[in-house]
Amino acid sequence: MLPIPKNDPETYSQIQEMARKFADNVIRPVAATLDRDESFPKHIYAQMGELGLFGISVPDTLGGVGLDTYAYAIVMEELSRGYASVADQCGLIELIGTLLTKFGSPGQKSAWIDNVISARKLVAYCITEAEGGSDVSGIRTTAVRRGTGWLLNGGKIMIHNAPVADVGFVLARTDPAASHRGMSIFIVPFDAPGVDRGPKEHKMGQRGSQIGSLNFENVELSEDALLGEEGRGFYMMMNVLEKGRVGIAALAVGIAQAGLEAALDYAQVRKQFGHPLFENQGIQWMLADMVKEITAARALVHRAAIMIDNGEPANAACSMAKCFASDMAVAQTSNAVQIFGGSGYIRGIEVERLYRDAKICQIYEGTNQIQRTVIARELLRNGARI
After folding, report:
1. Counting beta carbons within 10 angstroms of the beta carbon of residue 360, is it exposed (0 to 12), middle (13 to 18) or buried (19 or more)?
2. Alpha helical stretches, state H, 7-68
3. With CB atoms counted within 10 Å of each terminal CB, which end of the chain scores lower, N or C?
């Protein structure tokens, strides 16, 4: 039996409608410009903070919206339908908000949650290193005790928001001999002495979100920079990454949905051999496959989100949703380009951008090869009904 969302359906409809209107009226009209110029739309994020489109599952007692992962997935899809780079910022803030909600001290919650979900302070989620991407246990950044605080050294690469963020949540080794059980998370202001940012990277897709490298050289941190318990950083990061996979899966669905809508409109107005493209059975079948695959991916995303909300083991469900939805988005935006023909290959046409935007969904938040490994391990552990 499929799991059922916890809240009133009207609640989900209202937040979906708000996110959809914002995507249509504010995001979509500037998506091509943001992509072309690699612009960071801070003014849009400020508006989203005011509307309550960040911190969807952060409790309302802490200043959040107070909903759940299912609502978050709905919002991510709608925002991504407007532009995936904007949705990506929503996903980043959701992860940081969840980390603070679950593991932050009262002082850390008071200092950061409202600033983060209002977008007054921009954040970065700092895990990836040259030898520690899919293999998080391979990170080399260290934090050692010094007096009443910590000394941070190391570097991170391909970090979302690194060129613009005010603060980072940095995974570092505090016990090099303890493997993944010797990692901790630190809240690191990026204006601290010893923090150095690399240049902004120029990406193939999702060019409106910015990534870059970070270097930490003898960065002095106070005792209260430690988030949660020492040595529990790996567990804490993995705990929120289930929600992260759901978010990227929903984002991929939104990209594909935008591609379907564009391709369907084009097939009805573009004429070949005296008839609209849609009258060709081959085009009809492509569009039918698109909506079929998108609907299936959306169902996987919603199932995984509700399992998280119900406290059920959701590891396999989240990996299936992320893997299937991102593969689907690449395949179906490719079909959208095909339906547009040569014009779909031209920079500035929406489906061309969507095709580029979809590719990273197969890579970040754990590559799809890693997701397949996770699914296979869950099959071995729990059997064929996972």
Report:
1. buried
2. 9-22, 28-37, 42-51
3. N
Instruction: Report how far residue 288's alpha carbon sits from residue 331's, in angstroms, rounded to the nearest whole number.
Output: 13
Q: CA quadruple 229, 233, 239, 243: dihedral positive or negative?
A: positive
- Residue 273's identity, in one-letter code, is F
Q: Annotated catalytic residue: which of 217, 220, 365, 378?
A: 365
* Angstrom distance (rounded) from CA 106 to CA 91: 23
Query: Distance between CA atoms of 29 and 82, rounded to whole angstroms?
Result: 8
Domains of the chain: 9-121 (1.10.540.10), 124-232 (2.40.110.10), 234-382 (1.20.140.10)
Give residue 2's pLDDT: 57
What residues contact residue 279 under an 8 Å CB cut-off, 6+ apart? none
Pairing mode, strands 183-189 and 226-227: antiparallel
Q: How many C-alpha atoms does 366 have within 13 Å on its Cβ side?
A: 27
CA–CA separation, 255 and 79 (whole Å): 9
Cα 205 to chain centroid distance, Å, stands at 14
Q: How far apart are CA 249 and CA 322, in angstroms?
A: 4
pTM over 0.90: yes
For residues 239 and 101, the answer to whether their CB atoms sit within 8 Å is no
Residue 132: the pLDDT is 77
Chunk the chain into consecutive blocks of 10 residues (it has 386) and report each block's average pLDDT, rounded to whole numbers: 73 96 98 97 96 95 95 98 98 97 97 96 95 81 94 97 98 89 96 97 97 98 96 92 96 98 97 92 98 98 97 96 98 98 96 98 95 96 90
Work out the angle at residue 157's Cα, subtended by the Cα atoms of residues 152 and 160, and round it to the nearest 5 degrees: 100
Question: DSSP class of residue 26?
Answer: I
Cα distance between residue 335 and residue 287, in whole Å: 8
